[in-house]
Task: inverse folding
């Protein structure tokens, strides 16, 4: 069981951004994707989830043997993909609780009754140290950056996808918030979720030790390794590390 990205090439507004990117995330694994600004990390995340601006020029996305390269974003979610946004958006008029209930029904048809859903939501709120009042508020409306990132992790905990693409979930977090978010990622991993953790820094990798680290530069994966590769990047920077 895996999320396989095979010879992936992506264009944005006619410009080639990703070139022949390939790797495989198995259930329960954490793959850290690192790279400098503009290397194509967020392009990869958005293309995997089917954002219409990101055109897949070649290659395949295969989820547990199912080719989802050409299917719509909602079908990709139903197949088990989940994206935590780098910049979570505000959605006025839609409460967090109602959104999660609707999203669960869409991706896990017939598998959850009201009592079980409520208990799962309450447990996730407690684990993430979120004020219970927040789930009745509109999604991300008036939330701080750290609160928005916790809400992304709340979605991950409640929706329980097969594979989670986390786009710089650690950015802008203080140390305490980082630990809470990292614990949420670790819980998902222990539950068998395969995780693609996109990050600039090795900071979060002190709490969530990756099985593999990939360096993306110029739209290509130029090096892969263990967690030690991330620490090398932290010490030397990308240019020296990938020479």
Result:
């Amino acid at each position: 069981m895996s999320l396989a990205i095979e010879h992936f090439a992506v264009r944005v507004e006619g410009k080639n951004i990703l070139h022949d990117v390939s790797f495989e995330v198995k259930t329960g694994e954490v793959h850290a994707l690192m790279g400098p600004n503009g290397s194509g990390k967020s392009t990869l995340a958005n293309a995997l989830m089917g954002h219409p601006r990101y055109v897949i020029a070649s290659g395949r996305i295969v989820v547990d043997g199912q080719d989802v390269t050409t299917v719509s974003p909602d079908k990709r979610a139903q197949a088990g993909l989940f994206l935590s946004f780098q910049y979570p958006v505000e959605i006025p008029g839609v409460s967090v609780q109602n959104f999660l209930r609707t999203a669960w029904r869409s991706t896990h048809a017939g598998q959850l009754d009201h009592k079980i859903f409520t208990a799962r939501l309450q447990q996730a709120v407690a684990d993430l140290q979120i004020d219970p009042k927040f789930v009745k508020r509109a999604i991300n409306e008036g939330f701080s950056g750290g609160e928005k990132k916790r809400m992304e992790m709340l979605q991950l905990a409640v929706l329980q996808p097969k594979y989670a693409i986390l786009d710089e979930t650690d950015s802008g977090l203080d140390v305490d918030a980082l630990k809470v978010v990292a614990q949420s990622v670790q819980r998902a991993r222990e539950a068998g979720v395969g995780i693609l953790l996109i990050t600039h820094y090795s900071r979060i990798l002190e709490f969530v030790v990756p099985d593999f680290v990939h360096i993306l530069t110029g739209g290509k994966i130029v090096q892969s390794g263990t967690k030690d590769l991330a620490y090398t990047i932290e010490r030397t920077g990308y240019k020296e590390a990938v020479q």
